[in-house]
Amino acid sequence: MSGRVDIPGSKSHTIRALVCALLSEGNSEIIAPLHSSDTRSCLDMIRQYGAKVTEKKDRWLIAGRGKDLLVPDNVVDVGNSGTSLYFGIGVASLVKGTTIFTGDSQIRNRPADGLLRAINDLGAQAFSSRDNGKPPLVIQGRMTGGTTSVEAVTSQYLSSLLLTAPGAMGDTNILVPLLNEAPYVTMTLDWLELLNIQYSNNKMKEFFIPGRQTFRGFSRQIPADFSSATFFLAAAAVTGSTLELHGLDFKDSQGDKEVVNILEKMGAVVEKKKQSIVISGGSLKGGTFDLNAIPDALPALSVVACFADGETRLTRVPQARLKETDRIAVMHRELSRMGADIEELEDGLVIRGSRLRGAQVDGHHDHRVVMALAVAAMGADGDTVIDTAESVAVTFPTFPELMRQAGASIEETKE
């Protein structure tokens, strides 16, 4: 593989931009957003709350609703987008009316109980229709403010509250005894600062947000996605190739930029430029890496570890079991089918370098699992067939095309 790859926009930034645009009084411009099924789910959601959206080729123009949110006239279906679900719960708590959320089969198995408790503490009403803390969910506003404590097993619980508490009728105090994926909260705080929202932050352990604040319209270009870039970084590492990935900015708050440093520690050769990264695969070696802040990187890094000498331990990432799939169990199962020497831990994986062979594997309808297995297939002996590969459209619909442009041999089938 070789050449230049233009990495698409960040899903995390795009969805935050859409929610902020909805809550803003005035017009907003989102430049170079990510076009995927997840961001489309969020776009459809903000329309149901009354945002007016004009879609152009390279940008979305959005007339926000501010505090005058409409009550959705139908059930809000977030598809496969967990971020849209959790952020939508917060938005719904600001509405004088009732919202019902559902999604696909994976979403209907995503826990939201910690966020529901916090919403109830802050004066709105929130419950699961099946009384199991999972969708379908019923939310009725309005949020009055107050004090709550939230164990952010996923950072999206806390980010949802931070984005919507400024619109509450009173002040909000949030205690955070547990926080996973802290860089994503930093990203949310960056958006609040961009929009002049006032808050205080005590070492990510406690937040105070004054109520009755107003978001303003904005114009912002969406940075390229380090989470998507991870698969190209991993592909270069495992195939001994050189790729130049464009659009990546190390000054951005995305946590998955740490993958670059991890691969460098494992032996890849990395050159960081102002708006791009050049990576070349080298002689890889194992190590121990804490993935608590970057759980989405677990599938790709577990693949890289298969091609590294010695043992690699990917640790402190129990929340990886709560994503679209139990990614710890799924990567253990599917890489084992390819011949990996891999061991499952409660909070991660242990992988010992071994030669992989092509196999029939299951992507489990999980976009990051499918892309990680595709990278494993590039370094394996023989051909690999990956089922449910269409799920890459959730965050990265151009993944096969860009991989082919960089020299990978990928054939899409309808079987």
Please summarize what this structure is.
The protein is an alpha/beta fold and 415 residues long. The protein has 12 helices and 24 strands.
Sum up the structure in keywords.
415 residues, alpha/beta, UDP-n-acetylglucosamine1-carboxyvinyl-transferase, Chain, 4-stranded mixed beta sheet, 12 helices, 32% helix
Q: What does this 3D model show about the protein?
A:
This protein is 32% helix and 24% strand. Helix 2 runs parallel beside helix 3 (82-92), helix 4 (113-121) runs parallel beside helix 5 (155-164) and helix 5 (155-164) runs parallel beside helix 6. With 415 residues, it is of the alpha/beta class. The chain has 2 domains: 9-207, Enolpyruvate transferase domain (UDP-n-acetylglucosamine1-carboxyvinyl-transferase, Chain), CATH 3.65.10; 226-405, UDP-n-acetylglucosamine1-carboxyvinyl-transferase, Chain, CATH 3.65.10. The protein has a 4-stranded mixed beta sheet. The chain has helices at 11-23, 37-48, 82-92, 113-121, 155-164, 182-194, 226-239, 258-266, 298-306, 327-337, 367-379, 399-405; strands spanning 2-6, 24-25, 27-31, 52-55, 59-63, 76-77, 98-102, 125-128, 137-140, 146-152, 172-179, 200-202, 206-209, 215-216, 219-221, 242-246, 269-272, 276-280, 288-290, 311-315, 341-345, 348-352, 360-362, 385-387. The mean pLDDT is 97.
